[in-house]
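Lab notes, practical 5.
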Amino acid sequence: MSNDESVRVDKDVVGPIADFIPRRSRDDRNIRPSDVDALIRTIDEARDWEIRKAAVKAFSQVGEETPGIISDPRVVYALLRALADSHWEVRRQAVAAFGTLGVNAPDMLKGTDAVPEMIRALDDDEWRVREKACEALGGVGSETPDLLEGSGAIEALVDTLDDEAWDIRMAAVFALKDIGTASPHLLEGTDAPAALVAALEDEDEEVHTSATAAVEDLGRSDPGLFENAGVPSDLAENIDGMDPDEVARDEEAEEEEDEEAEDADEEETEDEEEEEAEDEEEEGEDEEDEDSFDRETVVEELHDQTKSEVMDEARDLDVSGRSSMSKDELVEAVADAKEAAAGND
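Output from the prediction step:
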């Protein structure tokens, strides 16, 4: 059946294949290319998501039960395609398969996009895929940490601590704990210690409890990991090598710094308010100066005009007796009218 070029992709075919390959690989330590062909074609061509999932699971079983048996690089690329499957259960199974292969057959994943795609799965729309990605990365990091070196996995898991789903935040805590327990150097120099301490304040009780256990366990194995992470003094008492009195002093010093910063902000705010008040006062004085009537200037400007032009202004200002006035009289009368109008404003 596996040699048939038109492999039937239905449950009657895939079921036996998925069960047969792991069993036979234990018996003769060999998987034929035709078996791999059948499963890859199933992953790529089956229209039923349950069948595609079964094919992915078959590769996962081989990697778990007979590590090192699979060596065909096409398997990795087929699983990478499964990570983009339209159904979340297939994607979740593909993430699980990579987690299994990363622990039991890590050489298969080296030089491929497996780890970057597992990291990408942390942003999957389906929370159960994101949860499995946390578990898979935690397992790989605890067993074969070199696969995560320089991958950005730690930073991605730290970001996942802000996931909207508490299940995912807790899974990220567990993953960082597993990785840090096996390889604390992967967490050193990252935001992971501080992020785990921040998770102590998580609104969900289970996340808080998990974070507490993670900080305590990691702190016992490597107290220096949380040296500048702001561990609460009551929790520091449970961590060997961490002086709770020193932590308490650091907390007091930090509180004093915060208070000083607040006082400085208040003083700065007061200074700014005073400056604004002074500026407003100066602006008001300038406006008053601008609004004050300068009779001398007005008279000079009127004298520079012709009598006809001054008469027009007198008419606009409704100066009485203007028709019988000389130019000098018109100038004085118009100036009087303008001064009176300015006073009324």
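Observations recorded by the TA: The radius of gyration is 40 Å. Residues 1-10, 243-251 have pLDDT under 50 and may be disordered.
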